[in-house]
Amino acid sequence: MSEQMDRAKAFIDALPDGDLVVVAATNDVARWLANGIRERRGLSAARRCEVIGIRNRSSAAKLIGRLGRVILHDSFVSHARPEVRAEVERLMHGINVMDGAGDAT
Fold it and tell me: What is the DSSP string of the chain?
C-alpha cells in the first residue's frame, strides 16, 4: 500500500465525530476523500462531513455560511498557494470559533 494511502487512512480515522468541513486541494481530491470517509467511517459519518476542493481565492467562498468544524487536508496544506491558504485559514478561524473548535485544523 502506498504512503499516500496510509496517510489518507490515518487522516480519515483521526477525524473527530460531528459536523465537519474538510478542505482539500482540488475537487478530485475532495471526491476521493469523501469516498474514503464513506468507506472507512460509514454513511452516517460521511453525511456529517462535507469535503470541498479549494484551488483559488474565489473558490474559498465555498466556506462562507458553512457549519461545522473546518479541517485542512494535507493536500491543501501542501499545495495551496500562500494567498489562498491565508484566505482559507482566515475563514476557517472564524467558522471554528463560532463552532467552538477554536483554531483546530
Answer: --HHHHHHHHHHHHPPSSSEEEEESSHHHHHHHHHHHHHHH-HHHHHTEEEEE--STGGGGGGTT--SEEEE-HHHHHHS-HHHHHHHHHHHHHHHHHHT-TT--
Domain that holds residue 28: 3-99
Number of domains in the chain: 1
With respect to residue 104, please indicate whether it lies within any of the assigned structural domains: no
Q: Do you know the residue count of the chain?
A: 105
**Digits of tens for pLDDT over the chain (105 positions)?**
588 889 999 999 999 999 999 999 999 999 999 999 999 999 999 999 999 999 999 999 999 988 899 999 999 999 999 999 999 999 999 999 987 766 544
* Cα–Cα distance measured from residue 90 to residue 49, given in angstroms and rounded to the nearest whole number: 20
